Amino acid sequence: MTDFKDFLSKLYQNLNLLEERKAKYATNPPLDLLNQIDDHRQAITLTQQAIANEISEARWLAELQPLLISRSDWLGVSLAVQLLLAQVAAGEGTAISGPEASQAAEQVVQTSLAHLRQSPKGEWLANEFEQDPVTYQKPIEKELIALLAANSDLVAQLKALLAQYHQALQAHLQQTGGVQVQGDGATVIQQGDQSQAITGSSIGGDVLGPGASKS
Known about the structure:
disordered C terminus
């Protein structure tokens, strides 16, 4: 199972960085920055719901991914990749997201490792991670954060791969009677052969899954 509390801490760290950027613009921050802040707040709400067992881990993943990769900033992409690294380390990707999404996640991880291998330290960490992912997950994350902060081309490449992962995850959840998050922000909750589309003001804000309760 994903360490939701650890991931929540990372979301707050990112949000603090974004809020610091906003403060530098005084009264006229860029719209894209405001959207990134809003996305992180929504991601925090989703993660809090997952911690409270109000939504499943699969649903959390489906609604979280577009929030992390929808903007151009590297912070969200970095978190999305870190999440997949954690799943690889835990060996739970296929069980949660299905085989095709798991393969797409593996492509994201391998692309990240390939770029890390371009430096001596990164190469050593990548090799160690493949041998012992649990022990070397955190060190890999630190190197990856630094790499993404300085490499916009890699951010764009990983963003495209993450979008493929999200599409595969949606397909898996649709096949297994889960939730499908559409591009227009509508959430489709499927139960048996029936589906119900619910459009909220934000993904993951006020839309809860079957059997969930809103606190």
